[in-house]
Design goal:
The protein has 378 residues and is an alpha/beta fold. 48% of the residues lie in helices and 20% in strands. Helix 7 packs across helix 8 (258-274) and helix 8 (258-274) runs antiparallel to helix 10.
């Protein structure tokens, strides 16, 4: 019987004497060894079990699948480090084995010290490979977001220039016609639309973090600001949702445009509201983190230790899966049919512009927690 508390090693070996020898060595080293004597059974076992840390695979197995064939099928199911066992130095077999990206091979008879050294090296290399894979995924996500920023900023700039031309010509026409005339009413509709369009393009530019604010940054006590915004938040939040505040008093200030921080709070609360379909709870929490190193993540982050003020908006709504979480700050991405997908993109731009960071924790059915961090203003 296997022990779920110990790391499992699958031994695919049809020689019972060799298999028992390896099992004794592994058991003495604290592993939970499992022996299977055919490639077909090994593939089936892998499909049903996920507690394995390593596979020891005999290259020459009886049955329809030899060790290399079995390893290839296992790779299609999961990513587990594998070491080949062989009593032969057949060049053809070794070349086939190389193509399966194994973590090495051992020549029989198997010696305990060599076996444990090979296992330790395989597990260490696998750990490094996984870390590199995560790092590459993070780099790709950051580069993708930066590319979207550049593209969105350029498009918004050109689009805004065209909108200004339309607005300017509409204003000239408006000066020559009565507002009550049919033409005048159409011109007023054009002007209203261009104003809304201009506001939308400004939000897109905010996503890039490269916009120039019309006002100067000021020192903001974020706890005090949220208290001031409570009446507006209370009006915006449906009665079916309860809002709770956990605001740190005498919190250190951040340096930020007053309009930007207000928009950031509004957008985060609006996102939390949209995630709750029935009754639920939203909490806003503020606090301080000193000499804090932000953990690596796919969103904006600065890994250097620093002093931060944070705002955390947490809800118990529908939550997000991994793909939704990765795309949540992309411009025009939305899961709501009535949304434009600009709000959280603007949040991302505001945080980026102010050298902040974003941490997101969410699982489907378990709600979402978005924490934004800004450097403390000296």
């Amino acid at each position: 019987m296997s022990n779920i508390n110990k790391p499992q090693v699958l031994i695919v070996e049809d020689d019972s004497i060799i298999a028992n020898r390896i099992m004794d060595i592994l058991a003495a080293e604290g592993y939970d060894p499992i022996n299977i004597d055919s490639g077909e059974e090994a593939v089936q076992y892998i499909r049903e079990k996920t507690n394995l840390v390593l596979i020891l695979m005999d290259i020459r197995l009886k049955g329809a699948l030899d060790g290399v064939d079995a390893a290839e099928k296992i790779r299609e199911v999961c990513d587990i480090p594998l070491i080949y066992l062989t009593a032969y130095s057949d060049e053809n077999l070794i070349q086939r084995a190389k193509r399966t990206n194994s973590f090495g091979y051992l020549i029989k008879p198997i010696r305990g010290r060599e076996l444990m050294a090979a296992i330790e090296m395989a597990l260490y290399k696998y750990k490094l490979d996984q870390q590199q894979k995560k790092l590459n995924e993070r780099i790709y996500a950051i580069r993708k977001r930066e590319s979207l920023s550049v593209m969105a900023g350029a498009l918004a700039h050109h689009f805004n220039n065209l909108t200004m031309i339309i607005q300017g010509n509409a204003e000239l026409i408006a000066d020559d016609v009565s507002k009550e005339s049919p033409v005048g009413m159409l011109v007023q509709n054009i002007l209203k639309t261009t104003i809304r369009t201009s506001a939308l393009t400004k939000q897109v530019v905010k996503y890039t973090g490269m916009y120039v604010s019309e006002s100067s940054p000021v020192k903001v006590d974020i706890s005090k600001l949220i208290k001031e915004m409570d009446p507006m938040i209370s009006i915006a939040v449906p009665k079916r949702i309860e809002v709770n505040y956990h605001l740190k008093s005498e919190i250190k200030p951040i340096l930020i445009d007053n309009f930007d921080i207000r928009q950031l709070i509004v957008e985060l609360v609006a996102n939390a509201i949209a995630s709750i379909s029935k009754s639920g709870n939203i909490s806003l929490t503020t606090g301080e983190l000193f000499d804090y190193s932000i953990p690596p993540n796919e969103f904006l982050s600065n890994s250097d230790p620093n002093d931060y003020i944070f705002l955390e908006v947490k809800d118990d709504g529908c939550g997000m899966d991994i793909s939704t979480k990765k795309a949540m700050f992309d411009p025009f991405f939305t899961t709501n049919s009535f949304g434009r997908g600009i709000g959280l993109a603007a949040v991302s731009g505001i945080v980026k512009k102010n050298c902040g960071s974003i941490l997101v924790d969410s699982l489907p059915g378990e709600g979402t927690c978005v924490k934004v961090l800004f450097p403390v203003c000296c």
